[in-house]
Amino acid sequence: MTKIKNFFLNGQLYYVEQTITISDLIHYFNFNDSLLVLEYNNLICDKKHWKEIVIQNEDKIEIVTIVGGG
């Protein structure tokens, strides 16, 4: 039996059946990982931990991309 987990990304609800990490999520949504700040369950998450953190049920993830301009 597969356990479905739900999580929130930028306020939107998503469901996942397989085990995924923060890094997997960033690549799936095609974010440029050098131009973003990631908040995981209300804490800023350092990039060096993205491959280690497995998304759990009810996690809240906020991704803010950095945009330059003039």
UniProtKB/TrEMBL annotation:
InterPro entries documented for this protein: Beta-grasp_dom_sf, Mopterin_synth/thiamin_S_b, Thi_S, ThiS/MoaD-like
Pfam families referenced in this protein's UniProt entry, alphabetically: ThiS
Cross-referenced Gene3D superfamilies: 3.10.20.30
Keywords: Chloroplast, Plastid
Stated name of the protein: Thiamine biosynthesis protein
Upper classification of the organism: Eukaryota, Sar, Alveolata, Dinophyceae, Peridiniales
